[in-house]
Specification:
The chain is an alpha+beta fold. The protein is about 25% helix and about 20% strand. A 4-stranded antiparallel beta sheet has the order 2-3-1-4. The chain has a 4-stranded antiparallel beta sheet with strand order 6-7-5-10, with no helix packed on it. Pfam families: DyP_N (PF21105).
Length: about 450
């Protein structure tokens, strides 16, 4: 088994070749991709499918030739593992959040009202999602080749049905539907051998992301039984989020007196300029040259240059979701996630302020070894409340679920600014908690006997 070690780690070595490629790699740029949900109606058929999928899956780090780099990842809901016939003792050994599923915990993470599971797109939250396949590549031809191999596996397996599919792609602008570059930040994970995007970030313990290794507490994260099933696996929260781009543009227009002020207000809400240049390094205006430099675009901390949030507000989207070294209530390293956002749907034409009825947004994948203290904590405490930064009740201005009465504080001299009456710019269309096993665990699942 090949392993990887990162400089400066305390001898921790991650069995990277056993970790599914879709778990740790940053999203390729540009990218094309697809998500497929499957239902297993016969456990033997489900295991047969896994045997056919094994040659399609891979582990390890990206190849040197990124144009030929594509991967298919396989994940399971708790109901999916049950449908495959995983023994009850193993099923009971998974953490409570995973066993219950995202829909059952919707209120805890702020999916209420229009975002509640009752309004989700089928089959999210129904219990029918058993297997989730994801495929990503920077090369369309390579993606099609990998997808064809996966498609042949599930279409030739009676007893397994496709129940949902979603194509994702990078828009021609290279940005999200809101007009901002995404996918910039990736953590420095100890023992993986893949550098993080921020040279100033100290390596984070591998156990925050992969089961079987010590986490930031110095302990091993709880791991499902048997060890072959849990080791080198991880959890993902998959979310389909609709973006109301027209509402976003109207709000910016209504609260600005010029195009320049509108651009700055949007940047203050996001924490970066559209190019990706961070406000912490470019507080006055966008800097595409800085944004294009991979050594500089994410090379910053908050405490030394912007602890008071005069450049990047403490409540800005990127700062809430990754406070780095900022002065907050709690330890940010205990809640670090791998975030992978992929765009779906067409862009809203530039300058249009009314919704055209098209479904557009992102499919977000949030990866970590602790669903409760990573994804759920961030959603409940950092996105949907501002206590940790001293602004109780204030939500993430971009990703928070507002009701038209919320506010956001933007520090400034001589006086701060408070945005009021924020509408929601995003709507949850659905979500699932999935387990991404290591490759040996995939083989174990495929070869189970009754």
């Amino acid at each position: 088994m090949n392993t990887a070690d990162s400089g400066g780690s305390a001898g921790v070595r991650v069995e990277i070749e056993d970790v599914q490629s879709g778990a740790l790699r940053p999203r390729p740029v540009p990218y094309e991709g697809k998500f497929v949900f499957l239902r297993v109606d016969d456990r033997h058929a489900g295991r047969a499918l896994l045997r056919r999928l094994l040659p399609v899956t891979s582990g390890g780090l990206p190849s040197a030739d990124l144009s030929r780099d594509a991967w298919v990842a396989v994940a399971f809901t708790h109901q999916g593992l049950r449908a495959l016939g995983v023994p009850q003792d193993s099923l009971d050994s998974f953490p409570r959040a995973f066993r219950e599923g995202m829909a059952a915990r919707a209120e805890r993470i702020g999916d209420v009202g229009a975002n509640a599971p009752a309004h989700w797109e089928a089959p999210f939250g129904s219990g029918d999602v058993h297997i989730a396949l994801s495929a990503l590549s920077s090369d369309t031809a390579q993606l099609d080749e990998e997808l064809e191999r996966a498609r042949a596996a599930y279409e030739d397996t009676p007893g397994v049905r496709v129940i949902w599919q979603q194509d994702v792609h990078q828009l021609p602008t290279g940005r999200t539907t809101f007009g901002f570059r995404d996918g910039i930040s990736h953590p420095n994970i100890e023992g993986v051998g893949l550098p993080g995007s921020n040279p100033q970030e100290a390596p984070i313990k591998a156990g925050e992301f992969i089961l079987g290794y010590p986490d930031e507490t110095g302990n091993l994260p709880p791991m499902p039984r048997p060890d072959v099933l849990g080791r080198n696996g991880t959890y993902v929260a998959v979310r389909k989020i609709h973006t109301d781009v027209a509402a976003w543009r109207r709000y910016l227009r209504a609260n600005s007196s010029s195009a320049e002020e509108e651009a700055l207000l949007a940047a203050k809400m996001v924490g970066r300029w559209p190019s990706g240049a961070p406000l912490t390094l470019a507080p006055e205006h966008d800097d595409p040259e800085l944004a294009a430099d991979p050594q500089r675009v994410n090379n910053f901390l908050y405490r030394e240059h912007d602890d008071r949030g005069l450049r990047c507000p403490a409540g800005a989207h990127i700062r809430r979701n990754n406070p780095r070294d900022a002065t907050i209530v709690g330890d940010a390293r205990m809640h670090r996630l791998i975030r992978r956002g992929t765009t779906y749907g067409p862009p809203l034409p530039e300058g249009v302020l009314e919704d055209d009825g098209a479904d557009r947004g992102l499919v977000g994948v949030f990866i970590g070894a602790h669903l409760e203290r990573q994804f759920e904590f961030i959603k409940a405490e950092w996105v949907n409340d501002g206590n940790f930064i001293g602004y109780p009740g204030e939500k993430d201005p971009v990703a928070g679920h507002h009701d038209g009465t919320g506010s956001v504080t933007i520090p400034g001299k001589p006086v701060r600014r408070r945005l009021r009456n924020l509408p929601s710019f995003v709507v949850t269309r659905g979500g699932e908690y999935c387990f991404v096993p290591g490759l040996r665990a995939l083989r174990w699942l495929a070869e189970m006997e009754d």
